[in-house]
Automatic annotation (TrEMBL):
<comment type="function">
    <text>Involved in peroxisomal proliferation. Promotes peroxisomal duplication, aggregation or elongation without fission.</text>
</comment>
<dbReference type="InterPro" id="IPR008733">
    <property type="entry name" value="PEX11"/>
</dbReference>
<keyword id="KW-0812">Transmembrane</keyword>
<dbReference type="GO" id="GO:0044375">
    <property type="term" value="P:regulation of peroxisome size"/>
</dbReference>
<keyword id="KW-0962">Peroxisome biogenesis</keyword>
<dbReference type="GO" id="GO:0016559">
    <property type="term" value="P:peroxisome fission"/>
</dbReference>
<protein>
    <recommendedName>
        <fullName>Peroxisomal membrane protein 11B</fullName>
    </recommendedName>
</protein>
<dbReference type="GO" id="GO:0005778">
    <property type="term" value="C:peroxisomal membrane"/>
</dbReference>
<keyword id="KW-0576">Peroxisome</keyword>
<comment type="subunit">
    <text>Homooligomer. Interacts with ARC5 and FIS1B on peroxisomes.</text>
</comment>
<dbReference type="Pfam" id="PF05648">
    <property type="entry name" value="PEX11"/>
</dbReference>
<keyword id="KW-0472">Membrane</keyword>
<feature type="transmembrane region" description="Helical">
    <location>
        <begin position="120"/>
        <end position="143"/>
    </location>
</feature>
<feature type="transmembrane region" description="Helical">
    <location>
        <begin position="83"/>
        <end position="100"/>
    </location>
</feature>
<keyword id="KW-1133">Transmembrane helix</keyword>
<comment type="similarity">
    <text>Belongs to the peroxin-11 family.</text>
</comment>
<dbReference type="GO" id="GO:0042802">
    <property type="term" value="F:identical protein binding"/>
</dbReference>
Length: 225
């Protein structure tokens, strides 16, 4: 029990940990609003206010986050030229997303002209979606390389302890990357709802489930080991 509490404290001490918790609030309240709108308008109204407050809070928590993408651009991590190139594209999109998200937040709280919100939302969502596409491609490439490496280890070294340890590392990395893919696909759907509104992406259930998938996948990835 104490170990779980310690891990929760460590998780919530991280900016990403707080973000995933508030994101859970945001998209849970979106689903509650959708479910209660017709039958319990008072509850639906409270849920909507909770959703809006959570969304604005997350934008405040992400102040300066675009520097993470800038740092990623500077380092351009990757074991091959292809992965380095994809990393540049992915981090560039993420940097645009977080940078223009500042102006979207300021527009929605009334510091800047509220009319700017639509344009800032589009630019931010476009950068976000652009980056996620290349993050997803990169993760699938690394997952495929990991599967091939695992087969070689199993075939050439048999049941040696070194081989088993290497295989465990590959499998653990694969799980984390699959979680990243799940989060990025979910966030891509949310981004597409801003770029090109459509009945599927903009439906409250689609957005709610996508937001929770993203939040919980991120929760899993950031939870202390």
């Amino acid at each position: 029990m104490n170990d779980k509490v310690d891990k929760l404290v460590i998780f919530l001490a991280k900016r990403d940990g707080i973000d995933k918790l508030v994101k859970t609030f945001q998209y849970t309240s979106k689903l509650v609003h959708w479910h209660a709108e017709a039958t319990h308008p008072d509850i639906a109204g409270r849920a909507k206010r909770w959703e809006v407050a959570s969304g604005l809070s997350r934008k405040a928590f992400r102040s300066g986050r675009f520097l993470t993408g800038f740092n990623g651009l500077r380092r351009s991590p990757g074991s091959t030229p292809t992965l380095r190139f994809l990393a540049v594209l992915a981090n560039a999109g993420e940097m645009i997303y977080f940078f223009f998200d500042h102006f979207l937040w300021l527009s929605r709280v009334g510091t800047l002209d509220p009319k700017l919100a639509t344009k800032m939302s589009f630019i931010s969502a476009f950068g976000e979606s652009f980056g996620y596409i290349f993050f997803i491609i990169s993760d699938f490439i690394v997952i495929r390389e990991g599967v091939e490496a695992e087969k070689k280890l199993a075939g050439s070294k048999g049941e040696t302890e070194d081989a088993k340890q290497s295989i465990r590392k590959i499998r653990a990395d694969r799980v984390m990357r699959l979680m990243a893919v799940a989060a990025n696909v979910a966030d891509l759907i949310i981004g597409l709802a801003d770029i090109e509104p459509n009945p599927f992406c903009n439906h409250a259930v689609t957005l709610g489930i996508s937001g929770l998938v993203s939040a919980w996948a991120g929760w899993y990835r950031n939870w202390p080991s």
